[in-house]
Amino acid sequence: MSRPEIYSPEGLRIDGRRWNEVRHVRCAINTHQASSDGSSIIEQGNTKVICNVVGPGEPTGGGVGGSGGNQRAKDDNRVILTVKAVVAPFSTIDRRKRSGNDNRVQEMCLTIQHIFEEAVMGHLQPRSQIEISLYVLSQDGGMLQACINAVSLALVDAGIPMYDYVCACTAGMYDKEVLLDLNRLEENDMPFLTMATLGATRKVALMQLETRVGIDRLEPMMAAAMSGCHHLRDVMDAEVRKHGKSRLARTGV
Amino acid sequence: MADGDRSDEVDAEDDDDDSEDERLFSLDPEADGDARITGVVKGKHIVTPGELVTSDATWMRGHGTYSVGNSTYSSVAGTITRVNKLLSVTPLRGRYVPEVGDHVVGRIIDVGTRSWHVDIGAKQAAVLMLGSVNLPGGVQRRKSESDELQMRVFLKEGDLLNAEVQAIFTDGAASLHTRSLSYGKLRNGYFLNIPSSLIIRSKIHTLELPGGVDLVLGVNGYLWLRKHTQQLGEQGVSITRLAEEAGWEIYSDENEYISPSIRETIARYANAIKALEFGEVGVNEPRVVAAYEASLEFKNVGEMVENDAKRRIARQVLAARS
Start and end of every Exoribonuclease phosphorolytic domain (chain A) (predicted)? Predict the structure, then answer.
């Protein structure tokens, strides 16, 4: 049987990684400067997500312009976050169109909204709204983590005050081995969790585990996912700094 | 976390806890303190969200920072600015934050009771009170109820105007005024917007450019390029009678005749400014003129929309600076 081995006796995974290696991460910020206040693109292995952030701005929705706007936002003295995600039909191997109100996508949007309502310093932007749009172009496992990382980067690019980056990573348990940052094949084969931390701290912003796993297995998975998150923070931070440097060099008076 | 063997990648970051001191920003409170100078500490150091700025409690925390205990952390990606004992982080990018005295260009989005709502690209719409505009008939004129009823005659939804920020409300929204003949409704021109962070503040934001074109360089990143027209003051009206002379024409919607060559010059300026935006070059009068001159090598204004052309213009402007 030519079925590929998830984890070979030599300690190699399907794509040749070791258990504790994350996939190649490529990210960029300020990619769509004309259409948004902040934008980012992130590729984690073959998962690719674009994020656009518009705001903070006058709340929209309801009437035209500012007047008839989102009443919730008007009364609230915190910022309103709205998250919309589009999963492209061509993002998976078998072409599948997801409707706009797909439950999984809706749930993901809500999760992201809750995470970032905590991470963004919303009290500084009363009576305003931040619109976050996500476009999943290609999925190879870890869609939620890539989306969270993309939103983080785009919010930083938009100059919105946040306590720290929110970085997310997955970890799975294969037999008794922890595997970090799963791809699609691995995700289908083992229980896994998605974790998001606030920057390089041990503060957990999200932990999502949808499958059954022994309680003794949980801790090593969490530990691995957390170190993965911290690694991602460094990659994203490096990109932001690189971008910042080039920007300063050009705009200096 | 306690596992012994880790890959290089993951290892590299786990050191962070120990190397916190390196991130710590050495700010010497005794350092030269010219009260007026906004000094960027240690050149152009970039801090990112969550980064420790200082653990010294003597500093005051300004915008772009938050504190946990005695330590101050950055909440945005930007550069550290210091005024006396106040530390703040200026974001690299972000929405326009209005300040009193800014010359801005805005668009009416809503006509309310005794006020207009104006989009100036900030977090919230600005407010232009009926009492803060010049109405036909002079400064001394009282505003009557009939003025309230015909507000849409003066300014209606979609109209562009330039104004000055008069005050800031506690929630950060701006209140505007147009109580000067250099402010008011805009016509005879072309609107474009660029990120407000690219605008370099100066004393004058209404520029007369070579080629018979005026540029209103709103600090909020909204720009208005128009045919150069004689202002009332230049037409020999005495300064004291200026306001009386200003009649209904300041609220006119009719464009004057604009010749094809002026139209082309306006388009050229617009594309030159877009080239500066593309190259993320700060925009001020000398740079706009330099970009315009650099653009003259393109005979056809349309060629300037190509990224290569934009890059070339931006590079030439930067080269001219040094």
Answer: 21-161, 164-227
Q: How far is B171 from chain A (nearest CA, A)?
A: 6
**Interchain CB contact of B286 with A (< 8 Å):** no
Nearest to A20 among B6, B197, B282 (CB): B6
pLDDT of residue A49: 97
Check B50 against A21: CB less than 8 A apart.
no
Residue with tokens 């700010």: B27
Lowest mean pLDDT among A234-243, B40-49, B65-74, B312-321: B40-49
DSSP secondary structure letter of residue B237: -
Mean pLDDT of A53-80: 64
What pLDDT does residue A9 have? 87
Backbone phi, psi, residue A5, to 5°? -80, 130
Helix (H, G, I), strand (E, B) or coil at B1: coil
Residues 103-132 of A with CB under 8 A from B: 121, 125-128
Q: Do A125 and B282 touch (CB under 8 A)?
A: no
User: Taking the C-alpha atoms of A133, A135, A136 and A142 in order, what is their torsion angle to the nearest 10 degrees?
Assistant: -20
Put simply, whether A176 touches B (Cβ < 8 Å) is no
Fold of B8-91: OB fold (Dihydrolipoamide Acetyltransferase, E2P) (2.40.50)
Which residues are registered as beta bridge partners of B226? B189, B214
Query: What domains appear along chain A, each with residue ranges and CATH number?
Result: 25-246 (3.30.230.70)
Neighbours of A172 (CB within 10 A): 25
Question: Phi and psi (nearest 5°) for A106?
Answer: -60, -45
* A251/B280 Cβ within 8 A: yes
Higher pLDDT, B94 or A218: A218
Tell me the two tokens of residue B106: 């805005």
Closest alpha carbon within chain B to A119: B75
| pLDDT above 70: residue B15 | no
Q: Indicate the average pLDDT of chain B.
A: 80
Q: Which residues, including other chains, have CB under 8 Å from residue B19's CB and lie 6 or more apart?
A: none
Write down the mean pLDDT value for chain A: 88
Whether the CB of A157 is below 8 Å from some CB of chain B: the reply is yes
CB B72 within 8 A of CB B57: no
Distance from CA of B246 to the nearest CA of A (A): 31
Confidence of residue B243 (pLDDT cuts 50, 70, 90): low
Q: What is the DSSP letter of B73?
A: E
Query: In terms of Cα–Cα distance, which of A82, A79, A42, A43 is closest to A61?
Result: A82
Predicted complex ipTM: 0.85
Strand pairing class (A129-138; A80-87): parallel
- Give residue B1's pLDDT: 38
| Nearest chain B Cα distance for residue A97, angstroms | 35
pLDDT in tens, B80-113: 888 888 989 988 888 898 999 999 999 999 998 8
B95, B192, B200, B321: best to mutate for the A interface, most A CBs within 10 A: B95
Contact B94, A158 (CB under 8 A): yes
Strand, coil or helix: A144: helix
Count residue pairs from A and B with Cβ separation < 8 A. 160
pLDDT exceeds cutoff 90 at B27? no
Q: Closest to B94 (Cβ–Cβ): which among A21, A159, A228?
A: A159
